[in-house]
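Take our chain:
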Amino acid sequence: MLIEGINQEICSKCKICLKVCDRRYFQEDTSGNIVYKNLTDSCNFCGHCIAACPEDAIKRNFDWEDDVETYSEQIVSYEKTLQLLRMNRSTRNYKKKKVPKDLIDKVFNAMRYAPSAGNARLWKYKVLSDPERIAELGDIISRTMWGYWGFSSYEQAKEYYEEMGRQDIFNKAPIVIILYLEREIPNNTMYAIWGVDTGIAITYGRLAAESLGLGTCWMNVLLGAISVKKEEILVILGIKGLVLGAMTLGYPAVKYSRTTPRAPLDVEGLE
């Protein structure tokens, strides 16, 4: 059990933990003390109680705790946040430059904090950095998806990419990151939930990469190809399970000068 209870010596009995725990594991006993009762052993360790407790009185036992940061009233301004969101581009041209491991680690560290349904955190990550394996993966995707892209044949698609100097669909990216689950699809609802979780994690990684001067691009075309060539692609990746998303990572070869315009949202019910 990761949450062990309450440090009664420093607990102020503010009862905030009772409010933030959706599973009602915190209760007030007859003496007025706050106690933790997880009778079903089903705490998913969302961490809300730890984050909300003013005195840090939640006792826990695990070996992967980071340095806990104290919340400030405003971590970053809306203007700066919006600037980062608007400046994030889908990078389709990469420099022939190796990405240092410490920067890749920082991208993964950001993805580590992505939320997931029920805090399940089921993702597994596979990093491809071997140019030959990336090219092999790109080739099998191209052989599968050329019709979807509007080409009349695989050869036409290959010639098109070669004329553009992009080599293959991964655009000479030095890193390809695959997100997958070591399980099969139980039903369409769970597939959709896991897909949303994956999208959130990739978005965290993309924004972190942008802040580090790196470029990224969603590669959802992999999902289309794997629905047709599942076994062959899993062999190339060296994994087993359910692939849910992928992104490229590297140094952008093109420097953008400005953000792009976007049409207003179609929002209903906002008074």
Remarks:
- The two ends are 46 Å apart (CA to CA).
- The first strand starts at residue 3 and ends at 6.
- Strands lie at 3-6, 26-28, 34-36, 58-60, 124-128, 175-181, 215-218, 242-250.
- DSSP finds nine helices and eight strands in the chain.
